[in-house]
Amino acid sequence: MGVVVLANLSGKSVCATGGVQRLYIFFLKDNIFTSSTCRAALDYSNDVLSKLNPSFQVVHVKDYSSQNASADPDFYQKIVTDAIDVRADAILGCDFKVGAKKLRPTRWHGLAF
Questions:
Q1: Taking 60 as the threshold, does the pLDDT of residue 110 lie above it?
Q2: Domains and CATH numbers, the chain
Q3: What is the tens place of the pLDDT at every residue in 51-103?
Q4: How far apart are CA 6 and CA 19, in angstroms?
Q5: Separation of alpha carbons 2 and 20, rounded Å
Q6: What is the sign, positive or negative, of the torsion defined by CA atoms of 62, 63, 66, 67?
Q7: pLDDT score, position 58
Q8: 41 vs 12: which has the higher pLDDT
Q9: Which terminus has fewer CB within 10 Å in the chain: N or C?
Q10: Which of 19, 23, 16 is nearest to 48 (CA)?
Q11: 2 - beta bridge partners?
Q12: Which of 67, 74, 62 shows the shortest CA–CA distance to 38?
């Protein structure tokens, strides 16, 4: 599974310290591990991070099935494009390695990762 970790070297969340204010979350919903991991991150973001940093927000949550992802060869690039369109500072994703490899950091255009 690929997960983008949003923490700096001191262990402090970059979301809580203001480095990331707009978070985009995506996850594979037909797997219990990927869905529960990102749902927990969403809950933490809404319950804790938004209180520590009032300007922090989750700007979009995209859940999808493996059938959706495999039906479109550009599926993961569209996630990146969508994150850019909603002006996300960072992307947090829970998917298997095959899907995560398809995200090309060079296409993130300044998104933190």
A1: no
A2: 22-107 (3.40.50.2300)
A3: 888 889 999 999 999 999 889 988 988 998 999 999 999 888 898 865 555 55
A4: 10
A5: 20
A6: negative
A7: 94
A8: 41
A9: C
A10: 16
A11: 95
A12: 62
> Which tokens hold the place of 57?
């927000």
Partners of 91 in beta bridges: 24
Residues 6+ apart with CB under 8 A from 7: 13, 14
Length of the chain: 113
What pTM was computed for the model?
Answer: 0.75
Tokens at 58, concatenated: 């989750």
44-83: buried (b, 16+ CB within 10 Å) or exposed (e) per residue?
A: ebeeebbeebeebbbebbbbbebeebeeeeeebeebbebb
**Quick one: tokens of 7?**
């923490």
